Amino acid sequence: MEFRQLEAFAAVMSTGSITAAAQLLARSQPAVTRLVQELEAEIGYALFSRNGPRVTPSEQGFLLYEDVERALGGLRQIHQRAAEIARGDAQPLLLAATSALSVGLLPQALKRVETQTGAAPIQLRTASPEQVVHAVLTGAVQLGASSLPLEHRGLDVHWIAQLPCVAVLAQDDPLAAHATVPLAALAQRRIITMSNPFRLRHRLDAVLARAGRPPEQRAALIETNSSVNAQALVRAGLGVAVLEPLTAHGAPLEGVVVRPIDVDIPFFFGVITPQSRPLTAAVQAVIDALLVVASVLPGFVQHDAANHAALLQAIYGDEAGVQKVSRKVSR
């Protein structure tokens, strides 16, 4: 496969037509068509179904696009870095974080670092927890911030933090009058929740079931992969949400209120770097600043990174285990 073939494929995927891709790449339409056809001949299947200048990606095309875009991004990054080295520019700070940490912690932490050390080039990638771990393991970024689990061979876990989840309610919701919202009251309502069943959703489902959530309410829930989406759905009056606190505090939406819950539903997150790469002063400064910013949030508890396995056992066990581990290893 050649770079030009992959570039032509990605451009057609992004623009939806050969004509627009040709304009984007400053090539002729026949040249773009030929490059895509050469790629299809090499891999052995069609990437698009064609209807004149317009094309529709095949299922295989969709599957291949994510990897191609990631590879092209890596090549562009190499090209950009080579130019920076030639100019003598400082290396950019490469970061990856989940949406919650990108919104709720990193802006304040990066501002704190910049105030202390001055402005520097930064590249921040928002991704799923699994993608954040992968980016750090492969060396694509220098630092990752994500929810647990984080312990993989080849990673250094610098610290783990715990914060209590919060209720997000519409401003005119009767429950907004409570200083602390009873979980039992939330259990009777339509819940807007995260779609990944293996992370925070796992603990939320367990505590809501123990709070007596009726079957009809379980069937009526709304799932999303973004806490920002959840807040917008709450504001529209579609339900109430139980969320990690970072997005709710870091990017509050007008028209919603955030309240503590009378049952502790812990949200765990931490910071990781590649084990094989020495920490630069800039990366260490971000690690430290993230911890400072997180520590001022209500209910913050810090755990030693060595207790990652014990925390995971508690997370995927019962809530009593979480409380026991929290008392034992927090500091």
From TrEMBL:
Alphabetical UniProt keywords: DNA-binding, Transcription, Transcription regulation
Gene Ontology molecular function, alphabetical: DNA binding
Annotated Gene3D superfamilies: 3.40.190.290, Winged helix-like DNA-binding domain superfamily/Winged helix DNA-binding domain
Domain HTH lysR-type positions: 1-58
Top-level taxonomic group: Bacteria
Matching InterPro entries: LysR_HTH_N, LysR_subst-bd, WH-like_DNA-bd_sf, WH_DNA-bd_sf
PROSITE patterns: HTH_LYSR
Family membership: Belongs to the LysR transcriptional regulatory family.
Protein name: DNA-binding transcriptional LysR family regulator
Annotated organism of origin: Rhodoferax ferrireducens
